[in-house]
Amino acid sequence: MYLGKMEILENEPLAPYAYTQAGGPADFLAQPETIEELRSLLNWAQERELPIFAFGRLSNIVVRNGGLKGLVILLSNLKTIEQIDATTIRAQAGCDLIWAANQALAWHLSGLEWGAGIPGSVGGAVFMNAGAYGGQADMVVQQVSALMPDGQLVTFTKDQLAFGYRQSVFQDNGGVIVSADFALKPADPALIQAQMDENNYRRASKQPLNYPSNGSVFKRPVGHFAGKLIMDAGLQGSRRGGVEVSKKHAGFMVNVDRGNGNDYEDLIHHVQATIKAQDGLDLETEVRIMGER
To answer: Where is the active site (predicted)?
Structure first.
């Protein structure tokens, strides 16, 4: 079906869109190309009392086999990025974080080097307050624009974003992130490039990038590292269906043989139960598990 010129797909499998290459179908799926199309989608869903799920690259999501009941909005076509003053860039929510980091480099601006290898979107990075290698979204995000459930485009200043460890206000307020402004610093591009190269080398040498995955599955427990706990428990190589605890990095779960969303969830629960029994610790997921079994 179509909403204006925008196609809305029905019963659309999510696996081809997801970094895990796993996930059940969405009742409805659309990919708006403008903010007005996004607003019209929100209105369309609300008129039908449909739940709304907005994603960038589906890189931190586990969708169960039963899929998502409602409207899934993929923001990957909202991907423009611009330099709005000497030290500030504005990127739309669907812009790849890797691309944003490279554009910052092209403009001789430092502050996004940590995102040079993160396979996610700007919107997802803000939503989850993503970070790596000593950098994090809340260190550089200046303000964020979002479409709220009532259709209003609202700008949130930094002190309104309620950033925490893998947390932001958008996990509770129903807003769909449209764009983010990053406050960066002028720097020698050679030094920026060197830091990005170092981060990407560390990532490639330690992480199982040859298999589909969601990156780090668990948040860091206070005083511990999730990957080390999992490794010390002898869980590397453990499998449920086609999903395996990576033998290269214990904090990752990789899709090695046509695994599905339920396989991911089952393996997550197995790891959590084992660590709870052996170490008395509750591992909290960094990835979000969603949908129907």
So the answer is: 166, 216, 286
CATH of the structural domain 207-290, one choice from 3.40.50.2020, 3.30.70.1070, 3.90.78.10, 3.30.365.10: 3.90.78.10
Catalytic residue from among 166, 179, 240, 244: 166
Domain segments of the chain as ranges: 2-74, 81-192, 207-290
Tell me, what's the pLDDT at 263?
Answer: 98
CATH architecture of 2-74: 2-Layer Sandwich (3.30)
Whole-angstrom distance, CA of residue 272 vs CA of residue 274: 6
| Residue of 37, 216, 240, 244 marked catalytic | 216
Question: Is 286 considered catalytic here?
Answer: yes
Q: Amino acid letter at 158?
A: K
Q: What is the pLDDT of residue 253?
A: 98
Predicted local confidence at residue 120, as pLDDT: 93
- The CATH classification number of 81-192 equals 3.30.465.10
What are the mean pLDDT values of the chain's consecutive 10-residue runs (293 residues total)? 96 96 98 97 96 94 98 98 98 98 98 95 97 96 96 96 97 97 98 97 95 95 96 98 98 98 98 98 97 96
Note if the pTM is more than 0.85: yes
Q: Any catalytic annotation for residue 216?
A: yes
